[in-house]
Design goal:
Bound molecules: adenosine-5'-diphosphate
Number of helices: 13
Number of strands: 13
Strand order of the largest sheet: 2-1-5-4-3
Oligomer: single chain
Distance between the termini: 88 Å
Largest sheet: 5 strands, antiparallel
Structural class: alpha+beta
Strand content: 15-25%
Radius of gyration: 41 Å
Shape: rod-shaped
Helix content: 40-55%
Length: 434
């Protein structure tokens, strides 16, 4: 590789030598003239190549790069190589980006990239169709200006990213969507939107089927239980051998009746997607009733203690709240040995009212806790059945909580008892004697 410093040095040396020769053979004037002319020509050639370089840089193109001469030949060769390399990686990057865009367009889910201000940076075609937006028109628009739904704005600003949001009947299209926010980059988000209309329809068909079957079973079962009870009242007229069968029939039909009632309650709560009403509940009265019913269920064989903060009331659906609270107490009674302790607490923490049931019962394996609210999930099916359980209690509690925007927290350890806590949002709190 040539070095411009050596190149200049050799040129100067040669010109100086030739000038000295001219000085010796001719005169000083001729020598000086020769020296200055050579330097001038040398500089002029560099100025010329700088001009060509400048011209080429204004419109760089591989085919028009000058060849150069002397040191400039090498400079242009290096430029050519680097420019070719850059062009190649640019074209690779464009191909990869193009492939990514094509793949993103092929995904049936809607994908929207949002910047730190929740403005649309990019979105694919399915998202345009689902959420009625147009990238060309809506780029850089805040997403919550286009999806005007309070629940969506809350979900967006929550920055929790641990759940999905269901949007039903968006812009009267009658379709349902599930929205998931995923953080990426420094503070950008990816909004993924899935059309769940068909899944929702199937769920609704299943729910309706269960509700209809339960409804149809309810009347004949009530009649059967009624007649069995009448027969049982006439037990003196039966011989000792028949009586246990009668008793078993009565127990089993009672179980079926309870199951049908729980199924009906579950499908009625489930099919009601709207948030529960916000009517002030008289908690003192509710707890009086709870105490009476829980003592009846326990047959006074547990120490049941109820502690209630009378300054706080709940805004909700009284019947549903009563059912959820009684379900938790009833579980505590059924899964705690005789003589055990049960505490039911109504209080407030961090501006949020909560209901908590603590028991000193058999406890639950920590691994199974996330499954407890599934329909018909029972750790010990025989124990549940024998204690009058249907496997639907916690599922009902979960749906009542959803309707009240409440959260369930469960802490338990085998042999050390359990704690079930329902935490209500602040907007369902009503403070008394403020
Ligand atoms: P079930 O009618 O069987 O009690 P639930 O839905 O109310 O149905 O509860 C589901 C399962 O969770 C129960 O079968 C039981 O195994 C477990 N469970 C619920 N509450 C308690 C509790 N307080 N202590 C121990 N296990 C419990």
């Amino acid at each position: 590789m040539q070095d411009i410093r050596w190149n200049t040095f050799w040129v100067l040396l040669l010109v100086s030598f030739l000038s000295l020769v001219f000085w010796g053979f001719k005169s000083l004037e001729v020598a000086l003239f020769f020296f200055i002319s050579c330097i001038f020509v040398y500089l002029l050639s560099h100025v010329y190549w700088i001009y060509r370089l400048n011209k080429w840089l204004k419109n760089p193109n591989l085919s028009t790069i000058p060849n150069g001469s002397g040191i400039w030949e090498e400079i242009f060769a290096i430029l050519y190589r680097e420019y070719r390399k850059q062009k190649k990686s640019k074209s690779e990057l464009t191909t990869t980006l193009g492939r990514f865009m094509t793949a993103a367009e092929a995904i049936p889910d809607g994908i929207i990239a949002l910047n730190q201000n929740n403005e649309i940076e990019w979105c694919n075609k399915p998202s345009e169709k689902m959420l009625d937006i147009q990238l060309a028109k809506d780029i850089n628009q805040p997403i919550n200006y286009l999806l005007r739904e309070t629940r969506f704005t809350e979900y967006l600003n929550d920055n929790k990213y641990d759940g999905t949001l269901k949007l039903i009947s968006w812009r009267n299209s009658g379709r349902s969507f599930e929205i998931l926010l995923v953080p990426f980059g420094v503070s950008q988000k990816l909004l993924i939107c899935r059309d769940i209309t068909q899944i929702e329809k199937n769920d609704s068909i299943k729910r309706d089927f269960i509700a209809n079957v339960s409804h149809e079973l309810k009347t004949p079962l009530t009649v059967i239980v009624g007649f069995l009870e009448t027969l049982f009242d006439m037990k003196n007229e039966f011989n000792a051998k028949t009586l246990p069968y009668l008793q078993m029939m009565l127990e089993q039909s009672d179980r079926m009746k309870k199951l049908v009632e729980d199924l009906l309650q579950l499908s009625s709560i489930e099919s009601n997607a709207a948030p529960a009403e916000k009517k002030e509940i008289d908690m003192t009265e509710l707890f009086k009733k709870l105490k009476k019913d829980s003592e009846f269920l326990s047959k006074k064989s547990h120490k049941i203690n109820m502690s209630i903060n009378k300054n706080i009331a709940l805004l909700g659906h009284e019947k549903e709240i009563y059912s959820a609270f009684l379900n938790l107490i009833s579980n505590a009674i059924r899964y705690t040995k005789k003589g055990g302790n049960i505490n039911a607490i109504w209080d407030i923490k961090d501006q949020k009212p909560f209901f908590e049931v603590q028991d000193s019962g058999i406890g639950i394996d920590e691994k199974l806790i996330p499954r407890l609210t599934e329909r018909f999930f029972r750790i010990d099916a025989d124990r549940s059945r024998n204690s009058g359980g249907t496997g639907l209690g916690l599922s009902i509690v979960k749906h009542i909580c959803i309707r009240h925007q409440a959260q369930i927290e469960i802490y338990s350890q085998i042999g050390k008892g359990s704690q079930f806590k329902i935490i209500f949002p602040q907007e369902r709190l009503s403070l008394k004697n403020k």
